[in-house]
Every structure is written in C-alpha cells, then in structure tokens.
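Batch job 17 of 40 flagged for manual review because the log was empty.
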Amino acid sequence: MSASESNMVFGRFQSVVPHTTLSEASAEDVLAFERMLADLSARFANVSAEKVEFEIQLAQTALRQFLGFDRCNYSEFDDGDGPLIVISSSANENVEQLPPGPFMLHVPWYLSKLRAGETIAFQGLADELPPEAVVETEYWRKVGLVSHLSIPLRIGGRIVGVITFGAVCATRVWPEGLVTRLKLVGEVFAQALARKREQEKLVAAVAEIKLLKDRLERENAYLQHAAQIRPPQGLTSHSPCFLSVIGEAAQVAQTSSTVLLLGETGSGKEVLAQAIHDASSRKDRPMIKVNCAALPASLIESELFGREKGAFTGALARQAGRFEIADGSTIFLDEVGELPLELQPKLLRVLQEGEFERLGGTKTIRVDARVIAATNRPLAQAVKEGKFREDLFYRLDVFPIEVPPLRERREDIPMLSWTFVKEFSNSMGKPIDEIGDESMSALQEYHWPGNVRELRNVIERAMILSHSPRLCIKLAHTSLRPVALKATAGSLDEAERAIILQAVEQCNWRIRGPNGAAALLDIKPTTLESRIKKLGFTPKR
C-alpha cells in the first residue's frame, strides 16, 4: 500500500478498530489493512541484512499511524534472565520513545508473563493490572498509558521477543483478529532479524575460514621454505632474539661459508655449531672440535695441522691433525681468540687456500673443511690491541652470529631447566614430576653470568641433592645469591682489596663486558686490570 492510500484509509479505520471483531469494519477497510500487512511481509522477504532494523522502524511507524496507536516497540529477550533488549521504537509526541538497548526497569510480573508465552492486553491499565504488578502499574501511570498490548513472539518454539502497542489518548479494545494479525507482523520482524543474524554468522564464519586459509597458506609456504633450508635440529626456543639466531643458523647451514659465533662463555655456541653442522650437507661425517684455549701453545700447532715423526722431542710417530680429520666435514674452533699470534698465519692460509703442511714436514696437504669458529672475546678490540691478525679476523668474520646470553632469553629458562632435569633424571634414576615455583622464580630472576652451562650445573647439583619427585633448588647456594659488595674494617687498601676480590669472584674472574667485574664496580677495565695486577690476585680456575 502506498502512503497516499494509507492516509485515505487511516481516518476511517481508526474508528473501526475499537470494535469487538474486524467483521464490524467495512470490507474496504479490512481490505486496506490486509493489503498493508501483505506489503509489509513482501518488503521483509527481500530486505538486506544491514537494513533490517531500519525497515522495522518504518513498519512500526506505518502500523502505529494506520491503526491510531501512540507507541509501538519491538524488543527481544537475551539468552538468560536479563532485561528486554529494545530493538526499535516508534512513538508520537505524546509518549516517551524508548532508546535502543536494554530496558533497565525491573518489571518481574510483566517479564514472567511474556516468557510464559502469555499475551498481555489491557484497556483500562490502572484499574485492570493485578496487585502483584506494582512496578508495572507505577511505570505505566508515569508514562500515561491508557491501553496496552504485548504479544510474545516465537521462533522454532522458543520465545524470542515481544511486540507492544500502547495508547494514551483513548481507551482501546483488542479484537482477536487484530491481535492475530499484529502477532504475524511481529513474527515477520523476528524472522527478518533471525535471518540477519544467521547471515552475520555466515559472514563471520567465511571470514574466519579465509583467515585460517591464509594462515595455513603462510604456514605451508614457511614449511616449504624450511624444508628446503633444513633448519638445525634440536634447537627450540621461546625467545624472539634466539629464534632469530636459529633462523640465521638455518640459512648459513646450507652453505660452506665460514661462521663466527660470538657470545659469552656457556651461552651455547658449541651446541649451535653442532646444529649448523647437522643441518649441512656434511652431516654424515662427525664435526671435529678443537678448544684453542685448552691446548698449550707448544702443542696446538701439531693438534691442528698434524706432525711428522721426529718433528720434536717425543714425536715418535706421524700424527694427522684435526684439519686432516675434518676433510669433507666441519671443524669447530672454540675460543679462537686464544690462538697464538704466531699460528694465525697458518690458519689464515687454510681458510684462504685450503692447504697446509704438517709440523716438521714439507708436503702440502689440501683439505675441504668447513670452519665454524667461536669466541667470547671481542676480536675487533683484540685486532686494535695487536693480539689478533686483522686479515684473519675478516676471513673468520664472513657470517657472524651473536649468541645472546641466557639473561636475554629468560623465556627459555623453564624449557632448558626441564631439558636438564630429564637428562639427569635418566642418568641418575631419579624421576622428577615438578620444579618448585619458588625455585623456578629464582632461576628466572638470576642474572646467570655462567649462562646455560651454569644453569646445567645448578640443575645437576639440585638433582644430586633431591630426594623427592619435586625438585627444589637450594636458594642459599652462593651461585644463586649475588654477593653484596661491602667494605671490611681496616685500612683503605684492605677495603679496596676486599671489594675487588669480591667483585671478580662474583663475576667468575670476567673483567670486561656487561657482566664483568669492571662494569659491576663502575670503573674502566684497564684500571681494574692494573689494580688486580698490583694486588697480585691470581684467577681461580
């Protein structure tokens, strides 16, 4: 029905509605009303989801004006026992128009009747409401309602909402035929909203599926890439900084390039070197390891490059060096910064040319050995001080990887702790079910100057002392309790001696770096080294 047709019928129809039945209205008026309802139903059959609430508002206004009501509301129940949720409201200037959202007034009698599926219809509201409807009577008097109709609406056998009509200007009766037709209108509204929500769920589901699809595609691309570069095995982490290290190791593992691992003692450089080797094409042969700091200067050349019989006193037989053994594999040079200056040119030649001579020999030996070097010393500083060859430094520094100390990857402490617990549990035959919360907190708060190696030692010590499935770290141990620097009674020289001794022992005799005694005392490393020399301290190994 058009707006002009509605206006033509409006004047006649509002005098018909108060009758007991629609049969008392003229055929023309009833036909006009039926045409209006048919028009509303048709509009909602194809309404788009984003326009549902707007169309309900228009339909409410058309119904209210056509039938001569002062207010029309459409509301829904929430899933629980909460208030009605007003979806749309239409009212003339004589009646309060309810805003969309929860109807916060507590009307228990009214809600209980609607939830039970009962239609509420009154024409003399103040006189006809039952005594228990105290709040409802007060509210309807306040807003001036004379007649009221509330029709509960069902979808799938469940009460989902209510459509209400009210009048303040005249007393109205509610013919059965009219109530039936208005209920049908309300159900049209409810069905349209239900379809909208189903569409929204479908759109959300499609969006989630697309999101999952995109994520799976990204993960698949990553896994394909990871399968191509074969990331190092056995390396896991929850730390962003160490995950970056793992990524760098995975990239360089597929090449034969020289790798220089930089990091503090005990930070896991050897484990990383082994992982790089295991992920390389040389993995079928064992990685050869050499600790340059553990060998005497007089023996390191023969260990690295081999010796001929009679090369020196006691050389009773020819011996192959580590580089020969590493031919076709990988050689790991740990603490390469400790390599004697006189041997550095020979190492440089191996790196550049892949050849060398045994100690005491003249025959040139060629090898194909991939070099992974590691150091806890700042080699660039050693170059400036003349303790390390600049050309060798640049030859080693092809692919440097900074291995973070444990204090910078605290996210990995629980994982590493349990790794060591399982290791010692198997070897000691002591099953451990949990680590005490206080112990784990202490492990994560400690600054770990000895890094992962120190953590392993702490776990091993705790496992030895453990007598139950719950592992508790002995917090009183000095390694877990940083020593406070306190001056003792006596002369100034004695106080200085005590403080310096405490500092270097606390830092495991590390002088330089962020965890060194110089940083702890807030003095220059050269100044501290000079004072240590003056005091005659000897490092405890």
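Reviewer: the log was empty due to a logging misconfiguration, but the result itself is present. The chain has four domains: 3-199, 240-404, 407-480, 492-535. Unflagging and moving on to job 18.
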